[in-house]
Structures are given as C-alpha cells and as structure tokens.
Design a protein that fits this description.
flat, 3 domains, 3% strand, 234 residues, two-stranded antiparallel sheet, 2 strands, mainly alpha, single chain
C-alpha cells in the first residue's frame, strides 16, 4: 500500500509544537461561545494538550451556577413560557464550566430540529435539551435511538398518527433524510418500511408509549421487510 497523503492547506494536521496565541483563540472560539483575552492567554500558556483536556473533561459547576440554573428552570416550568426556558439555556451557555458540551447541545438542537410552536410544552422541550446535553460528547447511535422515543420529537413529527394500515411517514423520512443517512442514500420504499416499523411509537400521558393494543396499531409482521438500501449493500 502507498503512503497515505496528508490533506493540504487548512485541513493539514496541526503540529502541536507550533502552538500560537492565534491557535488558542481559534480553539476557544470553536470549542465555546467566544473567549476573553485572559482565557486566550491562559489557554496559550497551558498548551494544546492541556487545553483539549480542559474542554473534553467534564468540569464541576459552581454552586452559584447550579442555584441560578435551577431557579431559572423552575420559573420556566411555572410560567410555561418558552422565553423563560430560553433564558435558562442562555444562562447555561454563558456561565457553564463545560462550554464545549453546551455548544454541542446547541448543535444537536439544530440537527434534530423541533419547535415549541407545535410541541407547546416546556417540560418536553427541556427534556429533549437534557438528552442532547447528556449525549453531546457520546454516541450518535445512542442519541438517534433516544430521539426516536423523545416525546417532543414524536409530537413534532405526528407519530401518534402513525398507525397500522395508515402509516405516517414524517419521522421515517426525517430520520433518513436529515438525521442520519442523507438524501440519495435510501429509497422511497425504505421510508415506507421504516414508517411501518415505527407504527405504534406514540405518546400517552406525556410519555413515550409503544402502542401494541388490541387495536393493533403496530405493524409487527411487516416491519422492515428488508434493511434500508444503503445498509443492505454493506
């Protein structure tokens, strides 16, 4: 085998021995929501390895942060106003000791797009946000599986309308096109089969409920007769 060529230009691997103040600035701007001059100076002085360890290792939050965060979350639950929930999250973004986790939480929030305008529940939106945070630095597989049972997502994509003989393809289409495989890597039949697999994945009493009642909402005998095309070829 020939030697693997390294990518050129800005994609070239960085030599950690050439750790500059500009590199420290770039890392902090990418790994958190901006940085002060003091943070940049401290990160530059610490070096790349220490900077990465700081960003990737969970840090203990301060007592003041935890108290304020709890009060803001409680206020959002009491009012039911999404603006109050946004204030809670903005507080987390600005003051958390784990900025990379919070930035990735925002990334997953944009990836698995869900809106309060339809969900109409602060607790459901907060629970989804918590799941993004819990899996932010973890397994995408686990996060994707969790979203398939997430109440806010199920409401957003009309999963209660997905029933035997009347499959609703909203979630199946989104999970293939936007959340995982990407356009061009599946067929319309893959979507139909996936929708059947998700029949009966409903919400009841504000919780995920697998509806396999006598009404037989779940198509147990017709689920994924074959794997998605992109998977079968592997």
């Amino acid at each position: 085998m020939g030697r693997i060529k390294q990518p050129p230009g800005i994609l070239a691997p960085h030599d950690a021995r050439q750790w500059t103040r500009r590199d420290a600035t770039h890392l902090l701007w990418r790994g958190q929501f901006g940085a002060t001059a003091a943070e940049i100076a401290a990160t530059h002085k610490a070096g790349l390895e220490a900077a990465l360890e700081q960003l990737l290792t969970p840090q203990k939050e301060t007592a003041d942060f935890a108290d304020t965060e709890s009060l803001l979350r409680e206020a959002a639950y009491d009012t039911g106003a999404v603006g109050d929930l946004q204030a809670w999250w903005l507080h987390r973004m600005h003051y958390t000791a784990n900025p990379l986790t919070e930035k990735l939480t925002l990334f997953w929030h944009n990836h698995f797009a869900t809106s309060f305008s339809k969900v109409q529940s602060v607790p459901h939106m907060a629970a989804q946000n918590d799941r993004f945070r819990a899996e932010a630095l973890g397994s995408f597989r686990e996060l994707l599986h969790a979203m398939a049972k997430d109440v806010a997502m199920l409401i957003w994509l009309d999963s209660n309308a997905n029933r035997k003989r009347h499959a609703n393809e909203n979630f199946a289409r989104e999970v293939m096109e936007l959340f995982s495989l990407g356009e061009g890597n599946y067929t319309e039949d893959d979507i139909k089969q996936a929708a059947r697999a998700f029949t009966g994945w409903h919400v009841r009493d504000d919780k995920f409920w697998f509806n396999h009642t006598p009404a037989r909402r779940h198509e147990a005998n017709r689920c994924l007769a074959k794997p998605p095309t992109s998977m079968a070829a592997r």
